[in-house]
Amino acid sequence: MHDVAKHDDAKGQYFWVWGALLFLTGVEVWLGYRQIFVPVRMLEVLLMLSVVKSALIIAYFMHLKFETALMRWMLVISVCACFVIMYLFFFPDAGRILRLGVG
Amino acid sequence: MADVVLDHTAASHGAAGQYEAPLFGAYSKKVGMWLFLASDSLTFGALLVAFSYNRLSNPAWPTPFRVESITNASIMTACLLSSSLTMVLAVFAAQRHDRAWTRNWLLATMVFGTAFIVLHGMEWSHLIHEGMTPFGNPWAPTVPQFGGTFFTLTGMHMLHVTIGVIYLGVIALRKWFLPILGAIWLVGFFVIPSDNVFHYGIHVLLVGLIVATVILFLKPKDYDAHDVEVSGLYWHFVDLVWMFIFPLVYLMSTKI
């Protein structure tokens, strides 16, 4: 069961998470300006950074890290499965358009 | 947490079903909010996938976001991230039964959320002034879907942030929030010029006012730490979604 009192004394970790999120946002802005990647690669890199940021938010700010294992896995697996299905349907087609030379 | 402690002897005392075991080790309000957020994430997931699909498959995709827009969007991101921190502090204050600081941190969260909405509204107004509509844009006439996907995605998120601010206002101030919300709606309606889209968009506050009034008068209650935590889940989710919108929409369309 989620008992917030256990991690109430470790309040400092939330400031670290906040700092890490701001830092990662800075990295994203820097990458956006440097444009060192082509759009497809840039999308992948930015998405990876966004996944890391969202994992920090879900685990710490939304306290999912402190919930029961059943709740953690049920939520993560179901939502991830839906996103994988979306990815499988849409992105191969977008890549096909690029490979055909329209892009 | 006392309300979710399972009394295994309930069934033997003829009270079966009255005290059911918490399925996920959490109280029902929290499980309900998590399930809602899981379903809402699919809505945003579909919108984000549609935007990314269009972005990748259109080489002529416009890149209208100059330094000012990216700076503005970065400040908006910082506002949302900071609001998440103040929300966490509000949850901790609520669990300490510190009502004054719970209210203060919730109000701080609302201030950051409102700053986000205002900055986003200014960004929208700027883009509309430059000629961008849901059906076209001045930078790439062959890619009309840029405006549609941009306004749908960011508009849906802005609606969520607005609902979140009203939600937090109800939790923090209860009935006292209703006249404040009504005053903001009236002032906004008369101050925002009629040629600005937010002159009509501000009616969202009126809808929020009606819904909040019905809820507060039908079921008046003193919101406790659980309610603050559940409202925090919603708020963090709004922050989380922006972590995907900011790089995909703004940074992928940066004008160097």
Give the proportion of residues in helices of chain B: over 70%
Estimate the global geometry of chain B from the Cα principal axes. globular
Number of strands of chain B: 0
Structural class of chain A: mainly alpha
Q: Describe the biggest sheet of chain B?
A: none
What structural category do the secondary elements of chain B indicate? mainly alpha
Subunit organisation of the chains: heterodimer
Shape of chain A: flat
Mean pLDDT of chain B: 87
Characterize the biggest β-sheet of chain A: none
Global Rg of chain A: 18 Å
Euclidean distance between termini CA atoms of chain B:
53 Å
- Average pLDDT over all residues of chain A: 81
Total number of distinct structural domains of chain B: 1
Hey, roughly how much beta strand do the residues of chain A contain?
under 5%
Level of helix content of chain A? over 70%
- Biggest interchain interface, per-side counts: A-B, 55 and 56 residues
CATH architecture title of chain B: Up-down Bundle
- Spans of chain A of at least 5 consecutive residues whose pLDDT stays below 50 are 1-5
Q: Count of DSSP helices of chain B? A: 8
Instruction: Give the full name of the CATH homologous superfamily of chain B.
Output: Cytochrome c oxidase, subunit III, four-helix bundle
